[in-house]
């Protein structure tokens, strides 16, 4: 059971006896939600994602440190991979007089750490890809536009039993891709998304939705409904709405064992 749902049944002070009483009270509620236990293999696959995510965040920190240190010396470059390569070439060169000896020594260490992180991230991604190629469920999830092998394997390893959710809407709400309600007196008031549930899955789906929207802006004939929605709503609002739709489609594929079909293919079938 989620700890936040059991907390409401704890009486006054918190101790072991009060916690046990609250658990016994909560488990008998007909509307209580339960967390599905993961197998050791599923936890191992999720560890690959957690380790990769940690290395990605550390790599971003190192890149920001490199850019900040070089900017203090008046050396800047464009954003993105191309600009980073220019900075790494400057660090690798011993002939650049703009870098003091101590600064150059420090930057060389950071550049070596960045290279090591990129190697480690690549090794983890190869292992994730190997697991993906041997898993039929994640291969079906990859057919959804915006979900790559990283997102497909993460969803497959996280969702132990898709039938635990009554519908795709419940799955999207569990991830936190639905509006937060603050309704009272019969008046509905919907705010930003709730951001409940798995932050990792939510981030992967939103990032994938951004990629689909960028493609839709370049090829409006492929996704006419997204083009019309972008004309009425802000880009990030549409991205969250698309991420919600992707989550519901992912649940449908896991629960019913189907593969994604494009709207025009579904209409022609």
Task: Give an overview of the whole structure.
With 269 residues, the chain is mainly α. Helices cover 65% and strands 3% of the residues. It is built from twelve helices and two strands, in the order H-H-H-H-H-H-H-H-E-E-H-H-H-H. A two-stranded antiparallel ribbon has the order 1-2. Helix 7 packs antiparallel against helix 9 (199-218). The longest helix has 33 residues, at 40-72. The protein is globular, with a radius of gyration of 24 Å. Mean pLDDT is 90; it is low at 265-269.
Strand content: under 5%
Give the low-pLDDT segments: 265-269
Based on helices, strands and strand pairing, what is the structural class?
mainly alpha
**How does the overall form come out from the CA principal axes?**
globular
Mean pLDDT: 90
Through-space gap between termini: 43 Å
Alpha carbon gyration radius: 24 Å
| Number of strand segments | 2
State the helix count.
12
Number of domain modules? 3
The largest sheet is: 2 strands, antiparallel
Sheet with most strands: strand arrangement: 1-2
Which series of helices and strands comes N to C?
HHHHHHHHEEHHHH
- Helix proportion of residues, in percent? 55-70%
Describe the protein's topology.
Elements: H1 3-6, H2 16-27, H3 40-72, H4 81-92, H5 101-133, H6 136-141, H7 149-158, H8 168-175, E1 179-181, E2 190-193, H9 199-218, H10 224-232, H11 235-256, H12 263-268
Antiparallel strand pairs: 1-2
Helix pairs in contact: 3-5, 3-7, 5-7, 7-9, 8-11, 9-11
